[in-house]
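Record type: monomer structure entry
Structure origin: computed from sequence
Chain ID: A
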Amino acid sequence: MLIKSANGSFLPATQADIETMQSLKLGKAFGCTLTQLRNGKFHRKAFALLNLMYEQMPRAQVEHNGETIQQSFERFRKEQVIRAGHYHTDVTGRGELRLEAQSISYKECSQELIEQIYSDLIDLALRSVDGYDSADDLDSVVNQILGFS
């Protein structure tokens, strides 16, 4: 997702978008189709809240081939959306149940659903992150991060 800035350029909206842009080769031309999406406020708020949670919650890590591997933001984001109750089920090739996080992409998630996911992530964060007294308190911090207040 890109957001148009005051000078007319487009900027990545989330950390994931920044990483996608950084993976593109400099000097190459890319074609794209632009569409104006639903109100991006809750999408940006959801990612700001998830980033805040990612920074403040302990993350899983394992040793692999002598290297410490820490949980990525993408895996963390999906796990938090699942923990907030927004997922569908699938079965692996081994016959194991697998929970798949509800996509919060513009294409896959309505305005009403992203607002509900945000609300449920707030509730989850209040149970998981110390230092916030209420949903309003945490929402205010997210709004400050994004410059909405």
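Annotation 1: The mean pLDDT is 90.
Annotation 2: Residues 49 and 142 are 6 Å apart (CA to CA).
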